Amino acid sequence: MQQHPVNNQEYLWGHTPHQHSLTAVESRLEHLEHRLDKLTLINRALWEIQKKEHNLSMDDLLAKMAEIDLRDGHLDHQMRNEAVSCPSCGRKTSRQRSRCIYCAAEMPADVFPNA
Questions:
Q1: FRET pair for 101, CA 20 to 30 Å: which of 9, 17, 51, 74?
Q2: 52-77 residue pLDDT tens
Q3: Is the same domain home to 60 and 86?
Q4: Is 115 a member of any domain?
Q5: Residue 92, domain extent
């Protein structure tokens, strides 16, 4: 019989080599769920303020959402991180970078860097 590198007792009680990676995934999922809840709360608060202050309707909100959604050329309820032009050299670089990868010029700050 072939011997397995995992101790049978550890395997029986759930202590496998994959446990640490599963724990990391669960931790990341919990972090993302918390972040989603926080962003949902922020968006709800901003919408309620804007709706009240500017007498906006749900149709106004949906129209703006569609406009923003189409900025990447696709009406798919997603925002892709398109590359942006460097203000110094004009080459395209990721909007997630604080400096151009070609000339090291400082890139304009993105209000929503991980959107």
A1: 74
A2: 999 999 999 999 999 988 877 788 88
A3: no
A4: yes
A5: 82-115
